[in-house]
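Person: Show me a sequence?

Helper:
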Amino acid sequence: MEATITEMSLKDFEKLKDVTISERTNLFYDFYLHNRSKKHSNYRIASKIGSGSEIPVIDPYSNEEKKCISFVSNDYLGFTKHPKIIEAGKEALDLYGSGAGSSPLIGGQSVLHDQLEKEIAAFFNKEDAITYTSGYAANSGTLMALLNSNDLVILDMGVHTSVLEGTMLANKKYFLHNDVTSLERILETNKGKYNNMVIIIDGVYSQDGDIAPLDKISELAKAYNAFLIVDEAHGVGVLGEEGKGVFEIYNIFDKVDLITGTFSKSFASVGGFVAGNKEVIAFLKFFAASNIFSAAATPQSVNTVIKAMELLKTEPQWIKQLQSNVAYFRNGLDTLGIDYGKSNSAIFPIMIRDEEKTKRIGRRLFELGIYANPILYPAVSRKQTRIRMSLLAIHTQEMLDKTLNILDYTLKEENII
C-alpha cells in the first residue's frame, strides 16, 4: 500500500485487489474513522422529519439535534409534505395494503401501476412506459436488457453511475461533457462498425446542474442513425412552464427514442420509469431483470406519483416559485462573486476546487446551520470539488438571504472569494 490513510480517497478502495474482504473493509474503517476524527465525514446525517427546506437533524459528532436550512434534498417542489400527496398515499394504503406482494410480471401489477404508466407515457408524448422501483433500476435494467457486445454506447462523461452499470456488456466510448464536436467525431469514426450506436445523455446533469444541448445532439443522432436515450431525473418539475424538463425547453419529444427518469425528486416518491415506443416497452416488460425480478412498487408510492403529476397541472405555482427562487439565488451568487460553474437549473455547485477546503467548508456550513453536501473525488475530479446545493420551491427568501450571507462569510474564511 503506497498511499497512507490520510492520502487515500474512496477510489483507492475500488482498486484494492490483492487483499481479503476483511483487510479491505478494515482498512476502509480506518479511513472512515480518520475522516470522522477531523469532522470531514458529512454524510448519512439523520433527519428527524424527512425532507424539507429547514429540518432538524442529528449532528453525527455531538449526537445533538440541530436545525439547518437544507439544500441536500431533490424534492424540488416540496411535494413530499404536500397535504394532497400525503392523503393520496393514505388512500392507497387503505385500499391496496402496504405492498404489491410480487413482481409486476406475475401478479404485483395493479390498476394503479397501469394508470401511472399510461400517465407517464402521455406526459412525455410517448406511446407507452414501464415503471421500476428506483431510477437506478430503470437505467441499469433497461440498458442491460437492450445492449450487448455488438453495440457501441456513446456516453457523455457526466452520466449517472446507473448508466455505467447498465452498459457493462456493450462497447463504450465517452465524449467530452456537452461537447457536440467530440460526439460527432466518435459517431463518424465508428459508423457501420456496430449493430447499434446508442447515445446516452442526461437532460440536466446532477453534479453541474447544466443542461444538455439536446437540439444539436438529437440532430446528430438522426444524421448517424443512432438510438438516443435521455435520463431526465433533475429537469422534471424544474424546467419549463409545465415542468416537462429539457424536452419542453427545446420542444423535442419525438426525436428522443427513450426517456428515463425517477419518481424520487419532483414526483415526491420513489421509483423510476422509462417511456418510449410500444415495441421497446413491451420488450422491457419481459426482459428487464430489475423489473421482472423485483416486487412492484408499493401502492402508496404509486398513488403519490399520480397525485404529484396532477398537481403539476392544477398547481403550477410551485414550478413558478421554484424558478423564482433559482433566479433569486443565482443573482445573489453573481453579486457575491461566487463560482457556481455553468448551472442553469435548481442544482448549484459551489466550486471550491480543493479537496481539503471542500471538506472544511462543508463542516463549517453545517456548524452555521447550512446543510449541503461536499462532493469529492471520485464523484468529481480533484480540481472540481464543490459544495452541491439543491434549491426547493419551499425555500423562503429569508432562508436564501441567510444562506448567501453564510456562504460569503465561509468562503472568505478559506480565501475562496
Remarks:
- The mean pLDDT is 96.
